[in-house]
TrEMBL record:
UniProt keywords, alphabetically: Disulfide bond, EGF-like domain, Glycoprotein, Repeat, Signal
The keyword Manganese belongs to this UniProt entry's keyword annotation: no
InterPro entries noted in UniProt: 6-blade_b-propeller_TolB-like (IPR011042), Cueball_EGF_LRP_Nidogen (IPR050778), LDLR_classB_rpt (IPR000033), LRP1-like_beta_prop (IPR032485), NHL_repeat (IPR001258)
Prolow-density lipoprotein receptor-related protein 1-like beta-propeller domain location: 69-260
Pfam families: DUF5050, FXa_inhibition
Protein name in UniProt: Prolow-density lipoprotein receptor-related protein 1-like beta-propeller domain-containing protein
Leader sequence residues: 1-18
Database matches in PROSITE patterns: LDLRB, NHL
NHL repeat feature ranges: 106-140
LDL-receptor class B repeat start and end residues: 77-121
Naturally occurring in which organism (per UniProt): Patella caerulea (Rayed Mediterranean limpet)
PANTHER family in UniProt: EGF-LIKE DOMAIN-CONTAINING PROTEIN (PTHR46513:SF13), VITELLOGENIN RECEPTOR-LIKE PROTEIN-RELATED-RELATED (PTHR46513)
Presence of keyword Disulfide bond: yes
């Protein structure tokens, strides 16, 4: 063993950069998950030659994990992701140079594919493809409530706690729909059924438009206003045997970022895809130049996506003993208390009791 090696071993831990969430006046960072259970972070403002600032190894199964959905909690410096091979949802707390990873939820999940965090009311929404369900989870206590059942082929969810709507894409071909409901799962509305093979959904909070990808052979990114107006095809890759669909998608400020197939990461203007930036230095290749990465979920970590606004539950969780879930804004009160699965709401409509203990 050379002295150089020992020297590097001593010095490297102090040299590695560690992830710090960007400030509002800084550009967003992009986090992309890999099947081999890692997360790569890069700064897209470095341009097409941007390199990986940090690679974080993630918890999960021994033989890889299908980490497909990812969101963040800006206030607490946390990233959440789901793994549908392990049927678990995890969190990673960015804590100075340390990363504290833990399982948030594992019971009652089968194929957790979509995930979205409500940063105002501290609720994590999860969609389960095989159970055909949308769940809500308190990421701190692990309390879980099944919110909506019987949603076939549910792929992804998005949440806007400022307007009080939860969005999702589900179904395939004739049954494909883009829907919304209030955050308590009530007041369901079809926004559009003009889609066929939806995969991932991303909300542009600034312009109140939803963007989603559609799989092969459509290979398309579409967008629509949250009110169902203004359906647009934003991007379509040339169809053909060798073409790859845009799969996972995230939006931040003026840009769309997506994984084309599982190999490449691209960016383009959200209004008009004329010029596409490909981040080649974030990709990994073997000695013969063959791509070795298998990218999964992608996320723009951007504080401007999580602006503070009115908490519909006030500062005391609406008086609810467990979940406080906002409902139509014009209701009084504008929320409903709800209980974790296995518990029931008492007659006061605020407290939960465990039916097994009665
Ligand atoms: C990126 O790197 C290539 C090759 O090193 C170089 O030719 C090109 O000018 C760089 N582009 C930018 C925008 O820095
Ligand atoms: C609880 O909610 C139910 C259903 O909305 C309602 O009928 C009942 O009056 C409520 N109870 C109280 C104490 O407010």
């Amino acid at each position: 063993m050379s002295t150089l090696f020992i020297f590097l071993w001593m010095i490297l831990p102090f040299c590695t950069e560690s992830l710090v969430f960007p400030r509002q006046d800084e550009s967003p960072l992009i986090a992309v998950l890999g099947f081999d259970r890692f997360m790569n972070i890069f700064d897209p403002s470095d341009g097409p030659n941007a390199t990986v600032l940090e690679r974080i190894n993630l918890m999960g199964g021994d033989w890889g994990g299908a980490s497909c959905s990812i969101d963040f909690n800006y206030r607490d410096n946390v990233i959440y992701w789901s793994d549908y091979y392990e049927s678990k949802v995890y969190s990673l707390k960015v804590n100075g140079g340390d990363y504290e990873q833990r399982v948030i939820l594992e019971d009652g999940l089968d194929f957790p594919e979509g995930l979205a965090y409500d940063w105002i009311h501290n609720n994590l929404y999860i969609s389960d493809f095989r159970r055909h369900e949308i769940l809500v989870v308190n990421p701190d206590t692990g309390d879980k409530r099944t919110l909506i059942t019987g949603v076939p082929d549910i792929r992804d969810v998005e949440v806007d706690p400022r307007t009080g709507w939860l969005y999702w894409i589900s179904g395939w071909e004739d049954t494909a729909v883009l829907m919304k409901s209030t955050l308590d799962g009530q007041n369901q509305v079809v926004i559009s059924s003009d889609l066929a093979m939806p995969k991932t959904l991303s909300l542009d909070y600034d312009e109140q438009r939803l963007y989603w990808t559609e799989m092969s052979p459509l290979n398309i990114i579409k967008s629509i206003g949250v009110d169902g107006e203004g359906l647009t095809t934003v991007y379509q890759t040339v169809s053909g045997r060798l073409s790859t669909p845009p799969k996972y998608l995230t939006i931040s400020r003026e840009y769309l970022y997506w994984n084309q197939g599982h190999e490449t990461i691209r960016r383009a203007d959200k209004h008009q895809v004329t010029e596409i930036t490909r981040y080649r230095n974030v990709e990994e290749r073997d000695a013969r130049g063959k791509p070795t990465n298998m990218f999964m979920g992608i996320l723009a970590i951007d504080p401007r996506k999580q602006m503070e606004s009115e908490n519909f539950c006030g500062n005391n969780n609406g008086g609810c003993s467990h979940f406080c879930l906002p409902t139509l804004i014009q209701s009084t009160p504008p929320y409903n208390c709800a209980c974790p699965d296995g518990m029931n709401l008492m007659d006061d409509n605020y407290s939960c009791f465990d039916e097994r203990q009665m």
